[in-house]
Amino acid sequence: xxxxxxxxxxxxxxxxxxxxxxxxxxxxxxxxxxxxxxxxxxxxxxxxxxxxxxxxxxxxxxxxxxxxxxxxxxxxxxxxxxxxxxxxxxxxxxxxxxxxxxxxxxxxxxxxxxxxxxxxxxxxxxxxxxxxxxxxxxxxxxxxxxxxxxxxxxxxxxxxxxxxxxxxxxxxxxxxxxxxxxxxxxxxxxxxxxxxxxxxxxxxxxxxxxxxxxxxxxxxxxxxxxxxxxxxxxxxxxxxxxxxxxxxxxxxxxxxxxxxxxxxxxxxxxxxxxxxxxxxxxxxxxxxxxxxxxxxxxxxxxxxxxxxxxxxxxxxxxxxxxxxxxxxxxxxxxxxxxxxxxxxxxxxxxxxxxxxxxxxxxxxxxxxxxxxxxxxxxxxxxxxxxxxxxxxxxxxxxxxxxxxxxxxxxxxxxxxxxxxxxxxxxxxxxxxxxxxxxxxxxxxxxxxxxxxxxxxxxxxxxxxxxxxxxxxxxx
Length: 475
Hints:
Blueprint: H1 4-15, H2 18-38, H3 42-61, H4 63-77, E1 79-84, H5 87-100, E2 105-108, H6 112-117, H7 119-125, E3 129-132, H8 135-142, H9 159-169, H10 179-196, E4 199-202, E5 206-208, E6 213-218, H11 222-228, E7 232-238, E8 242-243, H12 249-261, E9 268-272, E10 286-292, H13 296-300, H14 316-319, H15 324-327, H16 338-349, H17 351-354, H18 366-370, H19 377-392, H20 400-419, H21 422-435, H22 439-442, H23 444-449, H24 463-469
Parallel strand pairs: 1-10, 2-3, 2-4, 4-7, 5-8, 7-10
Antiparallel strand pairs: 5-6, 6-9
Helix pairs in contact: 2-12, 16-19
């Protein structure tokens, strides 16, 4: 459930869960150290960031024409392209493709767009099995959970918890103690499903407009199985994932893998340009590409908010965020947690539904510092907060919420007036000194502020008074 109240409840629950805190502390510390190790040269990192940012910014600048070029080249290559404005439309398209091919079972490689769509749940409602093939995604699917991280979905669990879950829900006759044993159990289940599946579903990390090529980055080989063994391949892609040239991909790939898991390169890099051709021994007979908007066009129309779409889904911002690393991904109750989720989800779901996520940040800037494509996350957060407060001003005066919103706005307007006028400022300063620590008790705004912060203790004398006593002139 996406709401302020639920977020607060889940946050406090996470903070009071020592097992979860310990799991995240170990995982995040390791990821930060690995990332630091693969970027030993600051100058090289900044140069690579500039190249990556330029490639993504150029693609966003030319987004409409590049998407048309991508569609045209994919179609020439034999890939069938569909457009979906909403997740409902995208789900319906997948269902229609499945029904066209009489599909009863689907295997899925890792795809954040499919998480946006809640595709597994939708297909199950229509009698189609959808099995996650990525090991992390498979673990949380078996345990009926949502991903807690966009790169490592089961990062909130430790080895012992996963072993217990496998024993209870996957292979009761075996208690696997090592990661290798658990992987072998999962491999045994998944290999059978790969051969039986009617359709393979994947995400798309980058789509090259000039060649009509779909690029998939992975470590386990499940993506390659999903896109070659089943007779039908359906690729799901957010419209922002397009790049103009094939030469744009290598620097972006380097930034993605090094920022995400501290690897120089992933184990597998798949480039799909067409269905199986005559004489080829493997590959699907049909390839479909579904391009999903889901609010992305609206973001693209605004010069600052457009920067959100630069994201290459590396997860580095999460790994370095002091909020995410303490509460984990499930507290957000969204597809995209952490800093990127705080700016992406409110724009997808609407500020009225998810605007509170923009407030869940210390604005420390760690996410901006490590982002490989230089997304100004803190600037976008401030913009969303400002817009959220502006929207409150549009509440009808007959609504009880209007009085609360109006009171808050009145306080800040009064603060602005006082601090812009020296005489009023001195009068205010004297008043605060005399009222002292009673202020939070009679000011509701401060009462809310101090509910999660230390109550400020006011000095008995202000700076001007102390200066005068010392014989210092400040006029």
